[in-house]
Structure formats: structure tokens, C-alpha cells
Amino acid sequence: MCGICGIINRDGQPVEKGVLQRLSSVLRHRGPDDEGYHYEPGVGLGFRRLSIIDLSGGRQPMTNEDQTVWVVFNGEIYNFKELRLLLQTYGHVFRTASDTEVIVHGFEQWGEDVVHHLNGMFAFAAWDSRSRRLLLARDRLGIKPLFYSLVDGSLAFASEIKSLLLWPQLDPAINDRGVFEYFSQHFVPGAETFYSHIHKLQPAEMLRLADGDVRLRKYWHPQVIPNAKQSVADAVDELRQRLLAAVKMQLVADVPLGVFLSGGLDSSAVTAAMGQAGVQEIRSFNIGFDVKRFDETDFALQVSQHLGTRHESFRLNEWPTSILPKLLWHLDEPMADATIIPTYILSLMTRRHVTVALSGEGGDELFAGYTHYQGMKLNRLLQFFPVSWRRLGVAWLKHLPYGGSARTGYFLDRLARIVSSSFFPLFEGYTRKVAFFSPEEQQLLFSPAFQEKMAHFPYLSAVRRIPQDHPELDAVSQANLTDLLIYLPEDMLVKVDRMSMAGSLEVRVPILDHTLVEFALSLPFSFKMKGLETKYILRRALQPWLPASILQRRKRGFNPPLEFWLQKGLVEYAQEQEMMATVAACGYFNPDYIQLLIDAHVSGRRNYARQLWSILVFALWWRRIRGKGECPV
After folding, report:
1. HEC states along 532-599?
2. Pairwise CA distance, residues 293 & 270, whole Å
3. Which residues are catalytic, by number?
4. C-alpha neighbours within 13 Å on the C-beta side of residue 353
5. How far apart are CA 329 and CA 51, in angstroms?
6. Are 37 and 21 in contact (CB under 8 A)?
7. From the CB of residue 66, how many other CB atoms can be counted at a distance below 10 Å?
8. In whole numbers, what is the pLDDT of the chain averaged over residues?
9. Among 97-106, 246-255, 397-406, where is mean pLDDT lowest?
10. Strand, coil or helix: 8
11. How far apart are the first and last CA of the chain?
12. Between residues 58 and 448, which one has the greater pLDDT?
């Protein structure tokens, strides 16, 4: 796992070495073991290395025999040994045992089509000196990040936005569309970022720079084509074998390797597959919380004892406010997912023991594990009740006092959201469940001036594109696909990549092996969710490996006790960080509405944890992180 960056001046002007080294140095956390550079007229490539495979011979930038092709690469290619043998049959000579070298020779052999041969998580840049052609590419699911900027005939790229902010030619102007998107769904989807002149290479996307022309294209399109002829029994057997194959492939490493084990179904599946693959001593790790409802440690220990892993458990007993600005710097832009905190601490602690950890990301999206699918099915039933009854129910739930109990407030808020979403068509109701601020709430949140600007921005446009592109799917299947194509790469995988790399830990996600993803997309949705039972086929597939108590347990997300933290310490922390002064000064908000949210949450009248967290994160980022490349905290 590494950090990459580069600058291409299309007019051939030399790249300043000091500038490129600054872009690279700020990525040191992604690669603390080594650094490297390549320069030629108009070109500079930079690299930071976290050594995983071929510790002595895998230095980058890496080149071919005659130094006409150069590659910088972040990620892992799991099928590199098979590709190496294939490329050798074409006459290519390998000088290292590194997976990077198959990209070098693969690019020589197949050009842009090299991406179709790669099984792995990757973001790379390949430069052909003869044709002066650059190829940027990102893996199919968006596990590894890559950003770029085009300014006055030059292109710069980097693994993280903070690196590009150090490019002198870049104007770090804020993108109002990004602010609007963030306060709709707590991240910025698609190619846009919080910065007007910095763009995100999207999952399964390539950028080609040649002859002064820049072109983008997708090279992989997930197809939802259920195989009606497949039986549940056959699908169960195939899923088990595919999961085992994916995990076995991702065990390759020349450094110590472990697994995140929360005790949930997905992490337990990966851990069990490691045992089935023959790993003699499995090192497993989890983090727990002092609020019992959020703590999964007992489940993690249960799975560990069943599978015989060597387990380490860490605890987060309080809101670690001191590290939040640092984590936002690592994220580069606001993302209102409070699980960044336990993910970072878990990664930091795990790195003391291993360099690589496997994780269970992707199981909920591939096998319908989220509770909002149950909510959508319940909405079908609620729609049989008169609208007037449901309106009374929502009003009652929203005004019911819950005595300051954050747990009761969370339950009532969730129940109110389910009933409220039943007033809309099923997919529209789903958007109401996953959004942070509804259109009605945004009218209260934003200042009149920003409301006028946002009138031109369609609400949740990326989310609404899924049912437009897939009208053949029912609403629950459309929601499931939305989670896979938008929520997973824009939130879950961003969080895991940035927080693990902040601790110089490589995290691999075998459930997102693209061949396993393609198989999951071929399954009828009824195989994934039976009645209100989520992950039906995955539970069946894991029966030989895991105890019934784990297979039958209800989903509990990897969430910190956010509503408790905010109820106890929000006012003091907000004052310390000048939150209200910041939201008033930046011009986007109605501070009076935000104060109403604070008063209602702290007093225990309502649970506004999600909304207040998104505002706090934005204010912290705006005041302390915005526009800064080097860490200001």
C-alpha cells in the first residue's frame, strides 16, 4: 500500500523537483518505508512506499527494460503470479518479484486493456515516454483513491487531495455543489469534491492523456442479471467456494497479516475463510465501546474462541475530541461518518502487531444486510393504513419526550423516519432514510443566499440516477444497488482507506473481489433477503463454519455511541472549536436553526445526533483544515 503523485506539463516544461517532493512528502503516512521519483521533460512521478510484497526489490517508480514505460502504483494485484507467467510467454523479462511489475509489462503488452487482466485493489499511473501518453486507472469497486486536477495545460494527480493542495498552480476554491451534496448525504458523490478544481477518478474509470487531449471512460459496468435457473443450494455452495478463493488469494504478503473481527457476520465470514484456507495462527482484532448497546466485543470473542484465533481487543471509553481535526485532515474533505474514530484507533492499534489486515467491507451491500431494506418492506405494509393515521403517528413520535435517554431517542427517531418515509413512493422513502437533511430541513438549515444558489442543484441526483438506469429492478433492489455503487465507494471504502493509511496499515477487502461481486449480482434478490431476514444466502453458506448464535444475531453496525457523546459534550466542544462562529461566518447556514437543534438534542427532547455531527465536522474542517495541504493540527 502506497501513495502516488505526479505532474504532467503538456508543454514539456520541466517539473520542479522541490514541488513534486512536497506533493509526495505529505503522503508519507501512506508509505513510510521508502520514496522514489522519476523525471523527464514535462514529467514528474512521485511515490511513497509501504512495503508488503518483495520488500527488497519492489521500489517505484518502476520501469521496463528500456526505460520507456514508468509506473507508480498504490494497492495490491492478487493475481500477479499468474499474470507474470502469462507475460513471460510473450517474451517479457521480469527483474523483481513485485506485483507492480505486471502492470509495467501488462501496459506494454495490452495498453489500456491491462486493467481487464488485473484482480486487485489499485490506483496507478502508467507513463509511455515514446508516445507521451499517460494512463490513470482505478479499481472496479473504488477501493483505492485517485484525484486529479487540470490547470493551464498541466495535469497533476495524487492519492489524496492534500497532496494536490500543495501544487502551486491549483486554485483551492470551494465547490458549493460539494457543500450541498454533503448536507444531503454526508459525503460528496461522483467525480466532484469540495474543491472546484480537484476531481475524483471514479471506480472502474480510466483517464487517458495523449496529444494534449484528456479522455475519461469506464472499463467495467456491474450488471444486475439474476440467474433464475440457479437453485438456492447450488448458489450456497458456489458462494462458499468463491469467498474461500477470494480470501485465499488475498493472503499473499511478505509481512505479518491479521483480520478485523467485530463479531458481525461479514468479518466472521472472512476470519472463518482464513482458517479454511489453512492459516495456522490467525491474528484478530476488534474495538469496543463503554456503552453496552454499541459494544460487540463479546461477539468478537465468541467467534475468536470458535475459530481459535489469537485475539486482541481494544476499547474506546470516551469521545477522543483531540484527534478529530487530525482525522479530518486525513479525510481531506468533510464526511459525516463518526465511525472514522474507532476505525482509526483500531487501525493504529492493529498496526502494532501486523502490517496487513483483512476486513469484511462489502457484505451488507452485496447480500442486502442493511436494516433499511427491512424498513422498505415495512413501508409496503404501512401504506395500507390511512395517511391521517400515519401523520398522527409521526407527530406523536416526534414530540414524545424520552427523558434525556439517548438510546430511547435513537429508537423513536428511527421509528419516526420509517413512518415518515411511508408517505412517499418506496424508493423515494429510501432516500428519506439515508439522507442527513431532507429538502424541507435544508430550507431551515441554509441561509437565504445559499438557498438561492442550491435551487440549481438537484437533490440526491446520484442516488436518483440508479432507478432511472435500472427501471427493471424493484425498489428494494434499486436501493441495494445504490448502496453498492454510491454509499460503499463514497463512504465505507473512503473511511477504511484513509483511516487505515493514517496508521500505515494496509486493509484488504476480499468480499469485494470483483468476480465475487459479479456472482452476487447474478443472484435473485430473494436469495439475499427472505421475508425480513437479511443476508439469507450468506447465512446459509456460513453454516458449516460458524456457530448458530453468530449466524442468527441481529445486525449491529460498527457505530460509536455518537448520540451519547453529543448529548454530554457537544456544547463545550462546540464552544472550544468556535463552531457557531464558524457556521455564522462562512455564509452557508441559518445559525438560529442550528442552535435549536443543539438545544433539543442536549436537553433530550429529540435525537439530532446525525445532523449535529455533520455540522460539527463541517465547521471543524472549514476553520482548521480547508485549503491546507500540510497537517495544521
Report:
1. CECCHHHHHHCCCCCCHHHHCCCCCCCCCCHHHHHHHHHHHHHHHCCHHHHHHHHCCECHHHHHHHHH
2. 24
3. 2
4. 19
5. 24
6. yes
7. 9
8. 91
9. 397-406
10. strand
11. 25
12. 448
